[in-house]
Request: fold
Amino acid sequence: MKVSVQKEDFDLGAEVQALSKDPRVGAVASFVGVVREVPMALEHYAGMTEREIGKIVEEARSRWQVMDCTVIHRFGELQPTDQIVLVAVASAHRGDAFAACEFIMDYLKTRAPFWKKEQRPGGTRWVEARASDDQAAERWEIKRAEAKS
Amino acid sequence: MKVKVLFFAALREQLGTSGEEIELPADVDSLAGLRSHLRARGGAFEKAFSDKALVRMAVNQDMVPATARIKAGDEIAFFPPVTGG
Reply:
């Protein structure tokens, strides 16, 4: 398991390759978030961020068969088209890899202490949290409750 | 008792500080109590802490509800809802 909060860019190919080394791995699902349209600065709570992402990864491991996993999130100044976040999950089969990858991403958006500040020509503006992100995370709780009942 | 308080993002800018060490009165022993204590300072603090929905809290880097107890030496963070990813 690798969790990294960093200024530097990352190489998707290299990260996926690193997760594919175990011969028991049959699937690697990955997600890359990219800065869209507006330049931004990302602030985070050093220490807590890594901890919180680590907890989300542990939760994913308790729900699905996750053989290995890499989460990288950048901070600092980022431009449109820059990569901002990577979640990659290795598993024996695609179902677990897809589900765990989406789960980690949904929870990261509502739990990891990052804040985006957009830098528009007219001035800067803190991005506001979206209810749709909370709903995306909540539906995993609903799915879990349904599975149990 | 003494605690370390941190502020992030919009809250940090609103308050004009990223944090401070605070000596708390004996009756302040919960997160909610600390929030009220800060709010009572007035000015930017009163404004920043008036909308509870916009202030999230962590004690020693764990997200906790306002009912959580605090103790001497704790690192307590206040911040807006997160927007990473």
